[in-house]
Structures are given as structure tokens and as C-alpha cells.
């Protein structure tokens, strides 16, 4: 289901490890998510996209939801899943308005963003909160250590934090674990408007029930198997 109230900018199947931010303007999946955390045995023979997938019978899908400044600015869990890693990219705070997104290639890779990596019942799942003009302030409720909107940063740098849930406390962990999120549960918030990008593995017959540019409310369905 939709993680937020907003407008559907783009959705579809991911091809050639490139994702469209708006029609005709793409960005690199690897630049957006950062390098792989789990090293595969053979990185040479397949793409970055293939290494995210757990099943050979799955594809990678994406949805971009744009939150205008007047929209409800909290975001929620779109499904039942487990967050294993938080990756914070400090960065620019350019407007993510669709008009700007048409002109700036890799806009979503330049702006400050917080990527939550994990798994759901069909494999890989990620939710990324992308900052925008005056919206470097991104909060994730279960992670009190996250500090966004710091003006000094080096381009391309990122900070990882691995999770394991210990009762009500969230603690970094080197091994297995994760933070279990339930569908509809509040996850975090922006100060104003911004963008949420979902990237997820699903069986190949997954179909979206969306139209580009449509308004959507938090909790409304995105597609079906």
C-alpha cells in the first residue's frame, strides 16, 4: 500500500539497473542505494539489480510518491517487512518538484536521503526518504541516532547503521536481526514535502493498479499479485 499521501510520479519494472524519476529521466540504482552490503560470489556476471534479488523467478519493481508541501508529511510502512540496514546519504536539498526532476538527471542521487533496506515475504524491500528544498530534516521514529541536515558533508559519502530489535530498544548489530515493521505503522516524517521511493522484489506477475500523476492516500493499494 502507499506509504504516504501524495502524487504517483512513476512506477514500473526496473530495467538495466536504471530507474526513472520522471518519464525519460533515469538514475542509477547503484548510485541511489549505494554499494552492495552482501558480497555475492560472482559479481562480474550479473548486474547490480540481479544481486538484490533473492529468487530467480522475481523482478524488481519501483514506485515514486511525491509529497507536495501541503500534503500530510508523515510516512508509514507499506507492508509487513523487516528493516536490516539504514543508510544515510548527506547531500543537496534541491527541489524534487516534478518540473525540476525532468531537468536534473540523478536528482534523487544528489539529494540527501535515508535508505531503509530489508526484506519482505517476496525478498528484497527498500523504502527511501528523499530530502527536498528546506527538507533535509528526515526523522525515522525507531532510530534516535539519525541526524540529517548537517551542512558539512563530502559528496558521495554515506553512513550505515545495522539494526536488531531488542525489546523497545534499537541497537546496532553485526549479525542477523532487524526491526519488524507492520503495514500502516508510522515510520517517520519530513518537515515539509518530499519524495518516497519504494524498490521491491516481487513475483514477475505483480501488476500495478496505478496511473502516472494520480493522487494517492496513505494505505491505498499500489498493486496486486
UniProtKB/TrEMBL annotation:
<keyword id="KW-0456">Lyase</keyword>
<protein>
    <recommendedName>
        <fullName>phosphatidylserine decarboxylase</fullName>
        <ecNumber>4.1.1.65</ecNumber>
    </recommendedName>
</protein>
<keyword id="KW-0594">Phospholipid biosynthesis</keyword>
<dbReference type="Pfam" id="PF02666">
    <property type="entry name" value="PS_Dcarbxylase"/>
</dbReference>
<keyword id="KW-0443">Lipid metabolism</keyword>
<keyword id="KW-0670">Pyruvate</keyword>
<keyword id="KW-0551">Lipid droplet</keyword>
<comment type="pathway">
    <text>Phospholipid metabolism; phosphatidylethanolamine biosynthesis.</text>
</comment>
<comment type="function">
    <text>Catalyzes the formation of phosphatidylethanolamine (PtdEtn) from phosphatidylserine (PtdSer). Plays a central role in phospholipid metabolism and in the interorganelle trafficking of phosphatidylserine. May be involved in lipid droplet biogenesis at the endoplasmic reticulum membrane.</text>
</comment>
<dbReference type="InterPro" id="IPR033177">
    <property type="entry name" value="PSD-B"/>
</dbReference>
<keyword id="KW-0444">Lipid biosynthesis</keyword>
<comment type="pathway">
    <text>Lipid metabolism.</text>
</comment>
<keyword id="KW-0210">Decarboxylase</keyword>
<keyword id="KW-1208">Phospholipid metabolism</keyword>
<dbReference type="InterPro" id="IPR003817">
    <property type="entry name" value="PS_Dcarbxylase"/>
</dbReference>
Amino acid at each position: 500500500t502507499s506509504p504516504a499521501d501524495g502524487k504517483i510520479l512513476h512506477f514500473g519494472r526496473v530495467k538495466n539497473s536504471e530507474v526513472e524519476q520522471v518519464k525519460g529521466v533515469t538514475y542509477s540504482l547503484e548510485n541511489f542505494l549505494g554499494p552492495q552490503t552482501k558480497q555475492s560470489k560472482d559479481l562480474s556476471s550479473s548486474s547490480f539489480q540481479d544481486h538484490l534479488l533473492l529468487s530467480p523467478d522475481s523482478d524488481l519493481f519501483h514506485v515514486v510518491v511525491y509529497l507536495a508541501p501541503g500534503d500530510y508529511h508523515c510516512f508509514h510502512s507499506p507492508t509487513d517487512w523487516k528493516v536490516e540496514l539504514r543508510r544515510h546519504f548527506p547531500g543537496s536539498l534541491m527541489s524534487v518538484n516534478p518540473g525540476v526532476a525532468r531537468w536534473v538527471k540523478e536528482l534523487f542521487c544528489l539529494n540527501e536521503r535515508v535508505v531503509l533496506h530489508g526484506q519482505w515475504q517476496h525478498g528484497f524491500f527498500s523504502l527511501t526518504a528523499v530530502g527536498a528544498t528546506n527538507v533535509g530534516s528526515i526523522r525515522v521514529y525507531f532510530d534516535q541516532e539519525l541526524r540529517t541536515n548537517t551542512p558539512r558533508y563530502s559528496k558521495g559519502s554515506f553512513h550505515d547503521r545495522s539494526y536488531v530489535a531488542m525489546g523497545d530498544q534499537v541497537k546496532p548489530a553485526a549479525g542477523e536481526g532487524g526491526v519488524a515493521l507492520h503495514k500502516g505503522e508510522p515510520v517517520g516524517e519530513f518537515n515539509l514535502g518530499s519524495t518516497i521511493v519504494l524498490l521491491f522484489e516481487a513475483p514477475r506477475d505483480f501488476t500495478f493498479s496505478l496511473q502516472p500523476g494520480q493522487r494517492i492516500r496513505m494505505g491505498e493499494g499500489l498493486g496486486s499479485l
